[in-house]
Each structure stands twice: as structure tokens, then as C-alpha cells.
Amino acid sequence: MAEEILKVEHLNQFYGDWQALHDINFTLNRGEVLTLLGPSGSGKSTLLRCLNGLENYKSGTIYFEGKKVDPTEKNWQNIRQKIGMVFQSYDLFPNLTVMENILLAPRKVQKRSEVDVKQEATKLLKRVGLEKYVNAYPRELSGGQKQRIAIVRALAMHPEIMLFDEVTASLDPEMVRGILKIMSDLSEKDHMTMIIVTHEMSFAAKIADQVLFLEDGKILEDTPGKEFFTKPKTKRAQEFLDSMNF
Amino acid sequence: MAHSAINVFLEGNNISRIIGGLWTSVWIAAVSLVLGLALGTILGVLRTLPNKVIRFVLRLYLEFFRIVPTIVLLYLAYYILPRTFHVNWPASWMAVLAFTLWVAAEFSDIVRGAIESVPKSQRESGLALGLNKMQLFRYVLLPQAAKLELPATINLATRVIKTTSLLMMISIMDVVAVGQQIIEANNQQYPNAVFWVYGLIFILYFIIDYPLSAWSKRLTAKHSR
């Protein structure tokens, strides 16, 4: 029996008068990969950012691990320790070395011992092939390397869910493959629960257990992954897939 | 002959008095800077928070200290505080108080500007890791802001050092006050002492301020590249 880790009910978000998200409803099971697809400006990133409280949504309810989320800043600080996020622009802290970037939150937020976290960080760095860069500063790394460090930094917090917001969008095509491989491994080997916003269609088709197709802030389709890419339910989704040359 | 007036420095302990006066100026500037930068950092952080009341009050504070001439601040501290509030500190500590509040006001604006120019995504990636506000400022925003603040801060420091020349107005024996005493005391014997004494004071201020100013210029050039 699949365990429900995240449930969203009637989520709405406004910017001024403009409604960015319309009545969003979905559930996600532990260990599954949910992919958010849709044209630019359809609300994918906004939705993702609502899930860890970076956006203050106007109305609606989020349940995390069966508990209703009380959307106060204090409470989000706790939840963000369990919901990791990786951004398109990497956003490593330029004033800290690679190791310091990784240690910061586990040490200061979770108060874990330095020896433990360092050991784990080294293991994770090895896994993404960057163990020799522990003392480097972000400015010395390429985009792809920075993004791998950003993933390691999020993983070091032992998240229950990982959010990926177009993490390959500003990378060289050669770098993209490496990042996607790390994400596939996370799903297959670690059974990490993930929510991914991406424009990499063949990757999405391979990894998605479930697809939400959004347009103008509405969910047009909530379809199992395999089905979405072979026979989408809506005409709009078919057109979208065609436009992406899929 | 004019240049023979240089011998005024050999009279009595004139040189060591001038150096002593310079030390008074320098320690008042240094203590004011240390206290003012610390207070200014806190105020600058508060000015980036969403609370409108705090922001308004701190803005008023900044404008007051920016608009009112420093000499007036010194008079306020020196004459009003003892009389009205019965604060009886030595004049030099009154000066430190006035200078500290001035530095804090100016620095709060530098800090606010620097924090606001750290990319918004840095704040978000910190929050996404579960950092609280304090941790976000302490480990992410302030260290990055410090780099942006440096040229303007050095500039502020040179202004503070220069402005210590006003200290004589509240009867502190700073380097300028000592210089004037020497000139007056030696008026008969060395009528041209004024040139040499102020010349030396000029050189002393220059030696302290020029390296700071050059450093700030270099940093500014580096940033704009």
C-alpha cells in the first residue's frame, strides 16, 4: 500500500489581481516522482515554491506526511529541513567553500556533529564525482559542477522530498546529462520522492511516475507518467508534446 | 627667514604635544568607528525587514544625522546632555557618542543598500535549507554584503578622521587645538610658525587618510570592472 507523503487541496495563489494558481489538487506517494510540465508561465515554478513556503499561497491546504501544514514562517523552517530544493541558478553561497556550503544547514539548523556531516558530505561528493573540490569556492566551478554541489547540499539535510526547479535549464547540453543521471539514480537507488519541473521531455518520460500538466495556473491533466507521453487525455497536452518535438 | 620657523618644533616638547593631540583625534575616531559600525550593522539589517514602523523611525534617524552638521551634533552632546539630562561624561566621550551615532546612521544606509543588492535567490536558497532569519543574515547575507560595503565604509572612515578636526570646538585637545596653542605661544619668536605647524598637521592627516582613500578607490575600480 503506497504511503501518501504530500497532499495539496484547493491551492490558490494571486499576484495582485492576477491569479497565478487556480484550485490546485493532487497527491504524491512516498518514493514516487512527480513531474510538472507545461508551457512557460503556466505556474509550475510557483506551485513548486508553494510546497516549501517560499511563496505565501492565498488559500488552500497542504498536508505533509499526513499532517496539515500550518503556514507560519516558524513551521516552514521545520518543514524545509525535510523538503530539499534545487534551483535553476544553483545559488551556492559564494562566500563559502564547497564543504562549508554543504555543512552550513546540517550544522546550524539541525545541530548535527561536524564529524558526521563531513563524513556524509565526502561520501555524497564522491558520488557526484567532485570529492577533490571540497575546498574550492563556487566561482572556481563550472555550472554543472555547481549544480551537483547544490544537489549534494540539499541531500545532506536528509530530505523526505526533493524539489527540482528547472535545474538543467541554464546548463550546457553536455552538463545536462550528468545532472539528469544523478536525479535518475536518486529515484532508482534511493527511492527519493521527487517533484521535478523540467523541459527535458525524454528525461521526464523516463522518470515520471505521475505527470501534472499545467496551463494558465490550472492543472489540465493529472496522469500516470507512461500514459501521459503515449496517449495524453487532452488536446492541449498533445499539442504541447508536439511542440516539444516529443 | 621663513624656513627658520621650523625650529618651533624643537621648542619644549612641542613635537610630542602634537603627536599626543593626534593620538586623541585617532582614538576618538577609532572608537567611534568600531561602535558606530556595530550599531550601524544592526540598524541596517532592521531597515531591510518588512516592519514599516521600524523602517520609518530608522529613516528619520538617518536623515537627522545626515542633515545636521557634525559641529551641531557635537554641541548638542557637549552642552545639552549634561544640562538637560545630567549626563556628566568627559568631553572626549561626548564626542565619541556624537560620532558613533553619526557613523551608525551613515553605515546603516550602506548596510541596507548592500544587503538589498545581494541577489534575491541567495535569500531563497538559504531559506530553502531551513535557515532562520538570524542565520540567513549571519552566514549568507551579511558576509556577501560586507564585500559590497567596503569601499563606502573606508570612505566613511576617512570622513570621520577628517571631522575630528572639529573636536577643538568642544575643548578637546586634538591635534588642531594643540597646533593653535603652539602657534600662539611662539608668536613672538616664530611669527611664521603657523605655516609649519599647519603644514605638519596637513601631512599627518594626509598620512592617515591617504592610504585609506587609495584603498577605497582601488576596491571601487575592482568592483566596476
Automatic annotation (TrEMBL), chain A:
Task: Supply the alphabetized keyword list.
Answer: ATP-binding, Nucleotide-binding, Transport
Positions the record marks as coiled coil are none
Chain ranges of the ABC transporter domain:
6-241
Q: Which Gene3D superfamilies match?
A: P-loop containing nucleotide triphosphate hydrolases
- Record-linked InterPro entries: AAA+_ATPase, ABC_ATPase_HisP-typ, ABC_transporter-like_ATP-bd, ABC_transporter-like_CS, MetN_ABC_transporter-like, P-loop_NTPase
Looking up SUPFAM superfamilies in the UniProt record yields: P-loop containing nucleoside triphosphate hydrolases
* Family statement drawn from the similarity comment of this UniProt entry: Belongs to the ABC transporter superfamily.
Q: Per its record, how is this protein called by name? A: Amino acid ABC transporter ATP-binding component
Instruction: Please give the organism.
Output: Lactobacillus acetotolerans
Lineage of source species:
Bacteria, Bacillati, Bacillota, Bacilli, Lactobacillales
From TrEMBL, chain B:
- Cellular component GO terms, alphabetical: ATP-binding cassette (ABC) transporter complex
Record keywords, A-Z: Cell membrane, Membrane, Transmembrane, Transmembrane helix, Transport
**Places the protein is found:** Cell membrane
Q: Which PROSITE patterns match?
A: ABC_TM1
Q: How does it sit in the membrane?
A: Multi-pass membrane protein
Protein name per the record: Amino acid ABC transporter permease
Entry superkingdom: Bacteria
**SUPFAM superfamilies assigned to the protein according to its UniProt record, in alphabetical order:** MetI-like (SSF161098)
* GO process terms (BP): amino acid transport
Q: Give the residue spans that cross the bilayer.
A: 26-46, 58-81, 87-105, 166-183, 195-215
Q: Does the keyword Flavoprotein apply?
A: no
Q: Which family does it belong to?
A: Belongs to the binding-protein-dependent transport system permease family.
Q: Which GO terms describe its molecular function?
A: transmembrane transporter activity
Please state the protein's primary subcellular location: membrane
Q: Does the keyword Transport apply?
A: yes
Q: Which Pfam families match?
A: BPD_transp_1 (PF00528)
Give all residue intervals belonging to the ABC transmembrane type-1 domain.
22-213
